[in-house]
Amino acid sequence: MLKWNNFGSAFNTLRELDVTAIREESEVVVRIAGLGSRPLFQRVVEILRTSGSHHFGPHGSDPFSYQPLPYGEPEPGLREADLLLVTVDGRAPLTAREAEAIGRLALLALPTVIIIGGVAAPDETEPVRPEFAHARILVLPDLGASAAPEQIVTAILDRLPKDRQLAAARAVTGLRPVYARTLINSISNTNATYVLLSSIPMQIPILSVPIATADMLVLTKNQALMVYRLALAHGAAPDFQARMGEILPVVGGAFAWRQLARTLIGLIPFWGILPRVAVSYAGTYATGMAAWRWFAEGELVSRERMKAIADDALRIGREQGAVLIATMRAQGNKRGLSLFRRRNKG
User: Fold this and answer.
1) Geometric angle at alpha carbon 53, from 260 and 230, rounded to 5°
2) Contact 277, 327 (CB under 8 A)
3) Which pLDDT belongs to residue 127?
């Protein structure tokens, strides 16, 4: 019979995880090329370097470099950039030559963010200028506004290639909060979706315990890799076993873990699909939040605070679960209708 100790055995699988690829991903050299207004670019970089978590400080090569707008053929090194960060001082008219140079950057086919500072956002009905059409445009009337750092970071991470985001967060402290939130939400949704798909055969009694045990191993693995990414993103040393040993006391005895284990092992077999999906989301989310606070600030989340986080995550998990179930049913209905039409064609 499965017992609580079986959940502890899931952690033994962590020793078998190959985290080499994640570690290597955190060590790649990220290149963000700044062009346009140099003072504005320097202000943006200052915001990114001074905001976010400094508990471990930045690690890795400085990703930022600057060069003037290319009025002719772009320098060869520019083509190797992972992201072009073009800064435009909106208080000064953009000359035809500058507009042409910005438009020419589109020929490089590189991820691009254009930050226009010092002016109010244009009317949404106003068409985008052709030289800006290839880029994510961010208009910031005041770079000193409280919302500016997150707006800048969101735009950068939206365009930066996914396999460069971990190393970028490790090197630039201001990128860490948005990276962490995005990662936690993504893995929580991944685990919720996995449990949803596996819950269908679990309705067959003879399959429920083996599938639930396999579920727990998969969810534990996903959570462990999420925690490891959070650790690396915040500048912690890349020793995987040390990071797991460090974080387990933080999240191992938490409410969300115990509830997740009891539910997924099937000790409450009459629970429906939606509660299982909600709990898998909540357990992953609460684990991620506790790990994030630990690596970002060295904060040990109290049991009471963890329960509050888990309760809030459970509410979100129910909402997400309902959406996932509705989506799955809609897709199933479409496939069924398509099959019906094919069979009755002619």
Assistant:
1) 35
2) no
3) 56
